[in-house]
Amino acid sequence: MTPPPMPPRAVIFDCDGVLVDSEPAAFELLTQDLAAHGLDLPPAQVERLFIGGTIPGVHRAARDLGARLPDDWVAGFYDRLYARLAEGTALVPGIPHLLDTLDRAGIPYAVGSNGSDHKMQVTLGQHPGLIARFGGRLFSGQTIGAPKPAPDLYLHAARSLGQPPGACAVIEDSPTGARAAAAAGIRCYGFAPHGDGTALAAEGAQVFHRMTDLPGLLGLR
Fold first, then answer.
1. Quick one: how far is CA 124 from the chain centroid?
2. Does one domain contain both 126 and 211?
3. CA-to-CA separations, 147 to 21, 70, 92, 113, 139, in angstroms, rounded
4. Does 51 share its domain with 145?
5. Which pLDDT tens digit goes with each residue over 56-107?
6. Is a pLDDT exceeding 90 seen at residue 203?
7. CB 8 within 8 A of CB 168
8. Cα angle vertex 21, ends 16, 22, to 5°?
9. Which of these, 26, 141, 205, 206, could form a disulfide with 200 (CB 3.0-4.6 Å)?
10. Separation of alpha carbons 157 and 114, rounded Å
11. 144 and 192: one domain?
12. pLDDT digits (tens, 9 = 90+) for 97-150
């Protein structure tokens, strides 16, 4: 019989698609924007190409694919995206209960996102009781100058929590983020609510499909 896993001493969450259900609106807007600039792709392909990336990275990659994006597209897209998300961004189901479980176990947590600091304030800020629980430990790969898949963001978050990488766990929903966790030497749990998680598993993540399943996977009850 396989013994239960040792609980982590700290947990680091990705933000979009893990804490907040922001990705449907973001990818809908991105699909429309790319089509308006000559790159007409199915929504599923847009998500597959760009999930876990940054908007500046999307700008470069979409141009390489033939999109006629102007030089100032990034700033304009951010403005439209923030306005859309400010209309209402729900929490991923099960997140409050999961944080309650971590609090009871005395396990601290942080956020490591490729989204901007402002984006996290727009989305998480709609849930003031939740954002306060992170105690300011909201870290952006863009701000530190090393977005995922570089390991720097997750290593920075682990240091902020006072734990070595091997004692932490990362919760991710993108292969890019799972790759960053692997490079940092942090075990990764890949959240795949709408698919089989094959791409996450290929990056070494342990795939799960419901946030309510995660406490058991972490060795918590």
1. 12
2. yes
3. 20, 23, 23, 8, 10
4. no
5. 888 999 999 998 999 999 999 989 999 999 999 999 999 999 999 999 999 9
6. yes
7. yes
8. 60
9. 205
10. 13
11. yes
12. 999 999 999 999 999 999 999 999 999 999 999 999 999 999 999 999 999 999
* 143 in Cβ contact with 117 (< 8 Å): yes
- Residue 37 counted as domain residue: yes
d(CA 46, CA 24): 11
**What are the structure tokens assigned to 104, written together?**
């009871």
Encoding tokens for residue 150? 């570089």
Q: Note whether 55 and 80 are within 8 A (CB).
A: no
Report the pLDDT value the prediction gives residue 157, as an integer from 0 to 100. 98
Final residue in a domain of this structure, among 71, 86, 101:
86
Largest distance between two CA atoms of the chain: 58
* Residue 153, amino acid: L
- Tell me, what's the pLDDT at 48? 84
Strands across the sheet containing 187-191: 138-140, 109-113, 10-13, 168-172, 187-191, 206-208
Q: What does the pLDDT read at residue 2?
A: 57
Which tops the pLDDT comparison, 161 or 77?
A: 161
Q: Are residues 132 and 151 in the same domain?
A: yes
Task: Please tell me the total count of domains within the chain.
Answer: 2
What range does the domain containing 59 cover?
23-86
